[in-house]
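job 3f2a | input accepted
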Amino acid sequence: MVKKWYFYTSLAIIIAFLSSGFKPLKIEANQWFLIKNTDGIRYLFPSIQQEDYTNLNIPFTGNLFIGFKEALGYRESENKYKKINSLGYLGKYQFGNSTLKSVGIYDTSLFLRSPKMQERAFVALLSKNKWILQDIIKKYDGKVVSGILVTESGILAAAHLGGAGSVKRYFKNNGKKYIKDAYGTSIRSYMEAFGGYDTSLIVANVNAVASLN
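job 3f2a | predicted structure (213 res):
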């Protein structure tokens, strides 16, 4: 009985000693995660100020590429992967059959069932258009044309709506020619609405195709 008493007493002392060494660390607030406002758009999150999160739209994507593709996808289809419009355009980004074939996709049924394929097709089309319009991007990026600040993302969005050829015609006429799609949406409106996003990760490649793996 005495041995048991010594054992449990010793065990309690050891546990108390060890527990005293695990005190919570005092973590000081650090501003290292805040990005400086270098391009006119403020990145404040994550923030140590609770009020910064009041009335915040979540998710906060700023001008990142994910913000670009989700905003464009919402305009095209409300981000519905299985949507087919009245003209037969397909998916989240509303691809036509000829455009799908240009990025290596021939099975439209499979395309509608596969969000991954649709996202890859979108990136592939951006790559093709960026290559086709590289001279336009180099010449006009950062300049004001017909009252609109032209950016690479705006040019690529306009090309998604009306094709790269329409974008070339738009700049050939100094933005004064009204070029629109079958529903009456102008490429000028897309150039303005989707300007200022970061599309630098898109590699210009005229032979880009959507990987099916």
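job 3f2a | The chain is about 45% helix and 0% strand.
job 3f2a | closed
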